[in-house]
Amino acid sequence: MAIDTAAVDQTLGAVGTTFRLTRLYPPTHPAVLEAMRQITASLPGLGALGTVEWKIGATGLHWHGQHLVPRSQQVAELAGLLYARGVRAIQVNPGVTAEHLLALFGVAVGNIVADDASLGRVTLLLGRRASHRLASGREPVAAAQPPPPAPAPPAPAADSSRPPAAAAAPPAAAPETVAPARASGAFQPGALPADVEAKRALAALVAAPTPEEQRAAAEQLRALTATLLGLRDVGTVAEIIAGLDRALVRIQDPGVQEVIGEVASALADGKGAGETYRVDVPGGELAVTWTFGNRVLLTGPAVLVASGVTLL
Q1: Global pTM?
Q2: Which of 186, 209, 204 is nearest to 244 (CA)?
Q3: Where are the domains positioned within the chain?
Q4: Percentage, residues of the chain above pLDDT 90
């Protein structure tokens, strides 16, 4: 039975609008203040639901197996930014305010950490890798100084009555082996290409009826992650990430969810920052560069299609 998401949709719609406006105008702008007022007006209906927890996927928010406000590009973008930061769920507790939800924007763009006090009644649940990064960033960096080494014993006096011993021959060098930098592309009879095998594993993950079968399919995808990244096929990687996002909605086992999050994070983190890809589009060839600053640059041919003069 479908869950009534009207109260949640109203709040998220106002959050998405505010997220867009805060990147265009200062916080004191009337449009931003009005959007914040709409968030505040929607909170009583959300509070009546008690504590709610929204799962975060690469393409949006999910609750009780339903994709929340799927047509909102702003909510989808906010969810994608939080997902890239390692956030896997948002827990909203009674007593939340518009300012608490506004702090989500700071986490999404990296201005504040995921457990900052400004989040108030909002709790962010992180994946394993993000939790480790957050914990390691707060460990004390000062290390104890190692004790000074003990002085070396004096060398024994040489005995002139004995002939000098022959110098020991240096040990034979071990044969040097060089591992290949990436998987070989040679044809292997009976072996499926990595992209085909990954798509089959993804289909098995979605169709698996038991947690054991789901875990087996998820582990197979984890084993294929490095090979998929070595193919440098952005389209295939994006398809796998979107499929994992869909599978995350229907899988309830926490262990399988954790594996899915790790695979999706590894694929998203290693899609090739700093590299340029060529994509064929109807207008010609487009160069897509994902910069190290987490921005995407599109470069391609431009054609002037119209011009004119107007009087103001």
Answers
A1: 0.50
A2: 204
A3: 6-135, 194-269, 272-312
A4: 16
